[in-house]
Amino acid sequence: MRPLDRLRAHGWQGGGASDGLLDRVAQANDASHYLLTPQAVVVAGSTQDVAELMTAAGGADVALTFRAGGTSLSGQAVTDSVLVDTRRGFRGVEVLDDGRAVRVEPGATVGAVNAALRPYGTKLGPDPASESACTIGGIVANNSSGMTCGTHANPYRTLRSLRFVLPSGTLVDTGGADADAHLRALEPDLYRGLLLLRDQVRENPALVARIRELFAIKNTMGYAVNAFLDFDTAADILAHLIVGSEGTLAFIASATFMTVPVLPHAGTGLLVLPDLVSAASLLPALIDSGAATIELLDAQSLRVAAADKNATERLRALPISRQAALLVEYQAPTVPQLQTVLQEAEARFAWTSGGGDELTTDPATRAALWKIRKGLFAAVAGARAAGTTALLEDIAVPPPVLADTCAELTRLFGKHGYDDSVIFGHAKDGNIHFLLSAEFQDSAGVDRYAAFTEDMVELVLGRGGTLKAEHGTGRVMAAYVQRQYGAELYDVMRRIKSLCDPHRILNPGVLLTDDPAIHLRDLKTASPIEAEADRCVECGFCEPVCPSKDLTLTPRQRIVTRRAIAAARQSGDEATVTELSRAYEYSGVQTCAADGMCQTACPVDIDTGSLVRRLRAEGRGKTVQAIGRTAARHWAGATKAAAAGLTVAHRLPTVSAAATGAARKVLSAEAVPQWSPELPHGGRARSGRPTPLPDIVFLPSCTGAMFGSSGDVPTADAFLALCEKADIRVAVPDEVAGLCCGMPWSSKGLTDGAEVMSRRLHAALWQAGDEGAVPVVVDASSCTEGVRKTLPSGMRVEDATEFTARAILPRLDIERTLDVLALHPTCSSVRMHTDDSLKIIADALSAHVFIPPSWGCCAFAGDRGLLRPELTDSATRRQAAEVRESGATLHVSCNRACELGMTRAVGRPYRHILQVLDERSTRRSASASIPPTPSA
To answer: Which of 73, 96, 497, 901 is most buried, judging by how many CB atoms fall within 10 Å of its CB?
Structure first.
């Protein structure tokens, strides 16, 4: 009987469950080097859902594994039984005590929590490099730490209370005054058993000493048995045992943390030393100098960092051989205090002598250095040889033996043939990560990995270290827990598991195991796929920014499914190829916004939208490509026809909705847009504007010609009016009615039409702009991005918001309102880094600018929101609710398609920000000169 049937036979009636092949394959991978395909996936919607599921699972003997962010690196978020997705339904964040505490559900990312705390000047203690993608459920379940929190501000130390569900279905909230009595009444055997273990541990001096020794440094191996020493009541002990338990004891419904203050002023620098030993030897002096963070990078890490697009000039120029580097940051509550600390550090250490970067407070340089460090694992893994699998291990040793440990690790890499391995990590805590590129296609590769692991375990334990510092035991080190702790403490852990989970339904094989070779089973092997995505390391950083994450697939899931299809094809399993390919067409291709937001979060710079556009192109036959070419050659007529159709539809709304709905059923949802009442009437055709010696060439977007304006003055006219107020001479190409950025073709895989339009656009703008001498300005952000991609790199292209903030705003007097202005940045403005300009204009218009905390791409994506309205609905649901709650009276963006999408989502008309600026501005009497356009 299938697991879902067995669960239902035992009374579970929950929804959100699937055992379809695509859903199971998409969840078979996390960020680790293990691959297990679940038999079913359940998307949990509430704590009660989970309690009922766990109760049924105990009776049905069905194992459950909880997963939220899936960024874990030790194999604790994959299963071959039932996977429970807690990412979608548990994202609540509640700030408490004026920011001194925060209550969080397991699906919220660390980044989202810290964003909610930012106005209060506080943040979470844990600060993992994956903070943009990892979730609170994983942070608690792994007792994750990070770069600055050490052991003093990790989840175990900052936890105030925990709300959790035991496998029996019992809900416990340790924040209640009667929590201990409640646990005693509902779970008497568990209650008595915990107190008995507490007393047995405390009465054994050898065990107490061993626990104190192991938890004096970072340690996420096994259960947090230090809870028996640190807490007295059964409820508090249990809550802290669940921290770091990796989903093997309970479901974490919410956690309340004490926050830590943000030190708002910081200086960061990169010290380059001759080798690893020199770097490690400098640690005591750096720690003594008050450094808040000290991150270690070995030579291979430095090579990858120097090749990063965010690398500083000095780092790119560094000739790297055997060096190692320390990324160091000092923090302080005030500028004078920081200056004092930095001056002392500058005098004490030779920051630039090895070719590193001097201490700086420049936000851009600091952000670049930290972005490189936080993306280092994925970047190094992405540079691995084809066909290999990336493994990231983390260990901790007492800082005095770190240098010796690094040297010996390097020797082991050579001994076992892992010559391209890298070492980096949190040097201040003696916590280092090392990455191997392993081959698991045959037994020789697995045997090599097994032999290295044995030597590594011997090395770390021989130096008083821990085998897992912050990534959790998982599958990778479950077989070694007893060797680290000894038989007595291992027996304590087994009794903890039996007390909490007597049926052993929670995450079997993780943290504790009877299988000494479990770390060598279910290893990933890499099947090559399309070049656009083949270097993906499945880290999951892309998932929070993906607009389809709550509807179908995320970028990571799109890629792992392509890998599953490739593996099935390679093995001759055509039935699997057919089934996955058929399901992938909707979930992987049709509901991808192809907005490129995944690339902004990807450490190896993958744009999954490029993969999707390739797949769309491969599905276009000669006839469809010919239609695309014809449309590109007659775009003026096409936009005029679209505008006329919208005008007719606007006058006959009932008929239009019914007609398009029927046509979509008969033809295809991919071929016929769905008309809906919030869509405007058609726009006005664009016309040329010859101007001698223009300051700029203006390309008004064709979306404004198709979709009528929300307001009396169209966006293009508003921009021209603003230019007139600022005495800026504007030319518009004569052929403008037939021009387009090319995105309507490229996004659909209509490569022939895209090429036709590219040539037309280049010729027209080249002529109008004095052979590229005059900059081009575009009034829709996605079109600006499209034009930048289409035109040669030497032609200068600016978005209208950039140009306005830079050249027009200083020449205007603006009527600023006290009303709340809701601002929707677009995926293109984020990708082009024009958000600052957009916010400058918004701040000039209103004293209260509101960007929803859960902001993301609206997924309207040209016409994708018309073809697949469910995509936009899913992408905007949360942020739209936040906008409605904000009380905003003005709603603005910088792209017509996004304005339509947000109008539909919020139920309030969104306008281009330049329309509002035009209405609320007048010419300033004394005008400044126009600043030069930045170089392309």
So the answer is: 901
CA distances for 484 relative to 219, 473, 479, 489, angstroms? 11, 11, 10, 10
Mapping DSSP onto H, E and C, the string for 436-466 reads EEECCCCHHHHHHHHHHHHHHHHHHHHCCCE
Q: How many CB atoms lie within 10 A of CB 289?
A: 15
Confidence category of residue 753, pLDDT binned at 50, 70, 90: very high
d(CA 800, CA 698): 9
Residue positions counted in the chain: 936
Which tokens in the block code for residue 539?
A: 């880290």
Question: How far apart are alpha carbons 473 and 471 in whole angstroms?
Answer: 7
Q: How far apart are alpha carbons 746 and 752 in whole angstroms?
A: 9
Sign of CA dihedral 918, 923, 928, 930: positive
Q: H-type helices in 486-554, by residue range?
A: 487-500
DSSP 711: S
Q: Are 259 and 99 in contact (CB under 8 A)?
A: yes
**Lowest mean pLDDT, pick from 39-48, 91-100, 363-372, 447-456:** 363-372
Q: What 3-state DSSP class applies to 824?
A: coil
Let me know: does 879 contact 908? Beta carbons within 8 Å.
no
pLDDT in tens, 184-242: 999 999 999 999 999 999 999 999 999 999 999 999 999 999 999 999 999 999 999 99
Tens digits of residue pLDDT in 396-435:
999 889 989 998 999 999 999 998 888 998 999 999 999 9
For 642-682, the three-class secondary structure string (H helix, E strand, C coil) is: HHHHHHHHHHCHHHHHHHHHHHHHHCCCCCCCCCCCCCCCE
Between helix 555-571 and helix 608-618 the angle, nearest 10°, is: 50
- Measured in degrees and rounded to the nearest 5, phi and psi for residue 892 equal -135, 160
Q: From 272, 267, 268, select the one nearest 351 (Cα to Cα).
A: 272
CA distance 692 to 770: 10
838 contacts 822 by C-beta, under 8 angstroms: no
> Residue 625 carries which side chain, given as an amino acid letter?
Q
Residue in 478, 295, 465, 480 with CA at minimum distance from that of residue 395: 465
Tell me the two tokens of residue 82.
């039932």
Q: CB of 841 within 8 A of CB of 913?
A: yes
pLDDT band at 371 (very low <50, low <70, confident <90, very high): confident
Residue 314's identity, in one-letter code, is R
Do 805 and 841 touch, CB atoms closer than 8 A?
A: yes
Q: Report the alpha-carbon distance of residue 15 to residue 43 in Å, rounded.
A: 8
Burial annotation 773-800 (CB, 10 A radius, 16+ → b, else e): ebbbbbbbbbbbbbbbebbeeebbbbbb
Residue 29 near residue 78, CB atoms below 8 Å:
yes
Q: Which of 80-84, 228-232, 310-314 has the lowest mean pLDDT?
A: 310-314
Distance between CA atoms of 247 and 66, rounded to whole angstroms? 6
Q: How far is CA 65 from CA 57, 80, 91, 245, 515, in A?
A: 11, 9, 19, 12, 18
Q: What tokens were used for 650?
A: 């606007």
Average per-residue pLDDT for the chain? 93
CA distance 726 to 422: 55
The helix (run of H) or strand (run of E) holding residue 905 is helix 896-906
Structure tokens at 531: 């070049």
- What DSSP string describes 171-239? EEETTSTTHHHHHHHH-HHHHHHHHHHHHHHHT-HHHHHHHHHHTTS---SS--TTHHHH--SHHHHHH
> How does pLDDT run across 501-519, given as a tens digit for each residue?
999 999 999 999 999 999 9
Q: Which residue has the tokens 């792994």?
A: 142
- The pTM assigned to this predicted structure is 0.93
Distances (CA, A) of 157 to 121, 254, 787, 893: 20, 16, 52, 43
